[in-house]
Structure to design on (326 residues):
């Protein structure tokens, strides 16, 4: 699943080989994740559009539409038929789990490389715990990580990652700038994006709910008894509102389902919490008078990597539960 079959003699080549593997699995995860998000939106749009065309054809009738009536009904039925097929094939739990596992492999490889570069890769059995792990330990660690995703080798073989310039050595300042500050910025950006998307969808959900309540009242349904509207309900039974109530209710359900499937509220909370944690850990470390001492720096790297690993582990666990319907 890697790109280099021969064991390189130069330690820097070991690091570059590990970066290549990380780039590959990052590309696999990105491709799968983007595909799942696109198909999730496509299924929701197809369902609502199919129902809209069907309702429109029923409301206007064959007399008003003429030959277009059959086209509207056919298009509506075809769109509705696509929804279960898309969910079965493109949004299957197996695809979701493959995405989660590929991203997990990518993150574990990245952690291993950064730990190695900063001398914080856990030592092997029998080695001095305070001594930096040798390049061979990195190679073995990466191999063990990739072995957990051997069944996804076909996805990796079909993916061509973007080649990026990656470091073979890192100073402490470079680690803080590239890894720590980079992750702080990433979690802040992703948290804001998830929060803004959730806010927009919640607003749409609320407006569709209001429309459903209004149409329900006009159709003679769902008028609360405490409104004292029994007489009004009997007077304001608009038959035309019934099919549109069905459509609006379906659209509201689609928005709610998308919110739940994308887990935007949870992601916004988790990403912001991780951003805040990493920023706090960095600032606390900088305030230590001896923060550049080798042991303090090594402990700082270990703390940062554990925090990122913990967030990734929780992310994997939550998505696996979602894939299993938990």
């Amino acid at each position: 699943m890697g790109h280099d079959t021969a064991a390189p003699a130069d330690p820097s080549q070991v690091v570059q080989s590990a970066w290549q593997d990380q780039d590959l699995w990052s590309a696999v995860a990105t491709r799968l994740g983007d595909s799942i998000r696109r198909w999730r939106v496509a299924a929701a749009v197809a369902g609502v559009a199919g129902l809209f065309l069907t309702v429109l054809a029923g409301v206007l009738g064959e007399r008003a539409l003429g030959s277009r009536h059959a086209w509207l009904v056919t298009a509506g039925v075809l769109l509705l038929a696509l929804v279960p097929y898309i969910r079965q094939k493109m949004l299957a739990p197996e695809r979701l789990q493959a995405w989660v596992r590929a991203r997990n492999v990518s993150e574990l490889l990245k952690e291993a490389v950064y730990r190695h570069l900063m001398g914080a890769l856990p030592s092997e059995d029998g080695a001095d715990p305070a001594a930096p792990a040798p390049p061979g330990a990195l190679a073995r660690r990466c191999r063990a990580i990739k072995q957990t995703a051997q069944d996804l080798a076909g996805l990796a073989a079909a993916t061509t990652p973007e080649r990026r310039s990656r470091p073979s050595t890192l100073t402490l300042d470079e680690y803080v700038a590239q890894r720590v500050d980079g992750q702080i910025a990433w979690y802040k950006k992703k948290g804001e994006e998830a929060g803004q998307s959730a806010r927009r969808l919640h607003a749409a959900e609320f407006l569709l709910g209001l429309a459903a309540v209004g149409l329900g009242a006009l159709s003679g349904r769902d008028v609360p008894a405490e409104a004292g509207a029994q007489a009004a309900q009997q007077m304001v039974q608009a038959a035309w509102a019934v099919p549109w109530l069905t459509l609006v209710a379906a659209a509201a359900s689609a928005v709610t389902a998308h919110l739940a499937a994308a887990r935007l509220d949870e992601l916004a909370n988790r990403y912001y919490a991780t951003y805040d944690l990493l920023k706090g850990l960095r600032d606390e470390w900088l305030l230590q008078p001896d923060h550049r001492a080798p042991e303090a720096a090594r402990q700082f790297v270990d703390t940062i990597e554990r925090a990122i690993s913990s967030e990734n582990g929780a992310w994997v666990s939550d998505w696996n539960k979602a894939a299993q319907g938990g």
User: Anything to note?
Assistant: The two ends are 31 Å apart (CA to CA). Residues 24 and 160 are 7 Å apart (CA to CA).
